[in-house]
Design goal:
Elements: E1 4-20, E2 25-30, E3 39-45, E4 49-51, E5 56-65, E6 86-92, E7 95-101, E8 103-109, H1 125-132
Antiparallel strand pairs: 1-2, 1-5, 2-3, 3-8, 4-7, 5-6, 6-7
Length: 134
């Protein structure tokens, strides 16, 4: 089975910013700072499972893999049998995590750290993030 590099952000620090099980959304955010004048949001939708061993994701790399490759890590994921479910390996800080989701998208902008995401997620993150912020 093949894998493909879906994104790599060297020198950026991402954080688990938001997760809502009711909407199956996961937001990773790299805020702008003196070194990086832009903010980067990564949103996974249709999230069935995820694991991350650190809260600070430095030099994040996302690789899409066939969902079967997550079988050893996420035993219940393959029970869903959704043909649209994809596996994503998150590599950073010398460790790896994963997300089992339908898709992911990224957006880079110049908005402030606390501003809602530029990615249309059909919900108001500014209100709900206070409840679900990790």
């Amino acid at each position: 089975m093949s894998s493909k590099l879906s994104g790599h952000w060297p020198g950026r620090k991402f954080q688990l910013w938001f997760y809502t099980p009711s909407h199956s959304l996961l937001l990773l955010r790299s805020a702008k700072n003196q070194v990086n004048p832009t903010r980067v949001d990564i949103v996974f939708s249709g999230v069935e499972a995820f694991e991350c061993r650190t809260l600070d994701l430095v030099d994040l790399q996302i690789t899409e893999v066939p969902i079967q490759e997550l079988a050893d890590r996420a035993t219940n994921v393959l029970d869903k049998k959704s043909p649209s479910l994809k596996g994503y390996i998150l590599t950073c800080n010398g460790s790896a995590g994963y997300v089992a989701a339908m898709s992911f998208t990224t957006k880079e902008d110049t908005r402030d750290q606390s501003a809602p995401s530029s990615i249309n997620m059909n919900l108001d993150i500014s209100v709900t993030s206070a409840l679900f912020r990790l």
